Amino acid sequence: MIELILPLIILGIFSGLLSGFFGIGSGIILVPAYIFLFEYLGFPPEIIPFMATGSSGATMVFALSSGAYVHNKNKNVELNIIKLMIPGIILGTILGRFASIEIGYENVNLLISVFLIAVAFQLALNFEPKKIKEKSSAFEKTIGSSSIGFLASIVGIGGGIIMVPYFKYRGSSMHKAIGNSSTLGWFIALTMTISAYFIYPETDQKIPYALGSLHLPAILIVGLTSIYFARIGANLSSKSQDKTLRYAFAILVIIGAVRIFFKNFL
Q1: What is the mean pLDDT of residues 194-222?
Q2: Where along the chain do its domains lie?
Q3: C-alpha neighbours within 13 Å on the C-beta side of residue 193
């Protein structure tokens, strides 16, 4: 386990920067990285995707708390909107965890692979809503936030890749869309962490350093490292041109997704 400390620190730096810069929970890099790590450590395959998504959520609590704080300090969080979406986010995230257990680990791996590839193309091509619709009902916010939490919980992300375009569609500036996403993503990550502690598939093998489907060394090393770098990423997001970074990140995500797919299905 000692030989993994440096790679986990590097992962924490990378995930923190991404979390703060894009307003995402960085689960799209954490989940494939954790899957590779747990395969290397020889964990039983039936628990790997659930431990990866659970540990991803717990790690994101660290990075998103830092990023959300900076975005709020910079007045880029619309609290009047956020408070209406929190209940739906929490409910959807819990239901998503139950659903992921029911559909089984192979289907979860497939969903993760497909979702990561879709995300990579969205990032590379920078799809954005063409039409802005500023008004929305509380009912729509509840349904939308529940759906975001549900999907985020299954694939182990903070939901920012969905929420940023949503908030832009609802008329928020890019900076506020990122700030709103970062704040709501923290609630997703916290709910994912609690759910992963209580809801996980049974296995005959004892997993060292694990609570439920949370792998403590990975969470602590990556999470604590990401705190500082999420602040840097959040501050950079207001003044940086992100085109090159988006392309590089998209390629990395595609490589991870293809590797998961070929490992599990071919």
Answers
A1: 88
A2: 2-265
A3: 19
Instruction: Tell me whether residue 6 is exposed, middle or buried, using C-beta atoms within 10 angstroms of its C-beta: 0 to 12, 13 to 18, 19 or more.
Output: exposed
| Residues 62 and 226: beta-carbon distance below 8 Å | yes
| Structure tokens, 68 | 């959300």
Looking at 5-47, list the stretches that DSSP marks H as alpha helix, in order from N- to C-terminal side.
Answer: 5-22, 27-40
How far is it, in rounded angstroms, from Cα 205 to Cα 22? 38
Cα separation, 99 vs 113, in Å, equals: 17
> How many C-beta neighbours within 10 Å does residue 242 have?
14
Which amino acid is residue 158, in one-letter code?
Answer: G
Read off the pLDDT of residues 242-257 as tens digits, 9 standing for 90 and up. Answer: 566 566 667 766 776 7
DSSP 201: -
pLDDT, tens only, 109-133 = 788 888 878 877 776 676 666 666 6
Per-residue pLDDT, 249: 63
Please work out, in degrees rounded to the nearest 5, the angle formed at the alpha carbon of residue 217 by the alpha carbons of 215 and 223.
95
CA distance 82 to 256: 32
Cβ neighbours of residue 33 under 8 Å, at least 6 residues apart?
11, 256
- Alpha carbon distance 250, 242 (integer Å): 12
Which residues contact residue 150 at a Cβ distance below 8 angstroms, ignoring those fewer than 6 apart?
92, 93, 95, 96, 99
The answer, yes or no, to whether residue 239 has pLDDT greater than 70, is no
- Model pTM? 0.81
Q: Is 126 helix (H, G, I), strand (E, B) or coil?
A: coil
Cβ count near 172 (within 10 Å): 21
pLDDT of 67 over the 70 cut: yes
Rounded to an integer, what is the distance from CA 71 to the centroid of its chain? 17
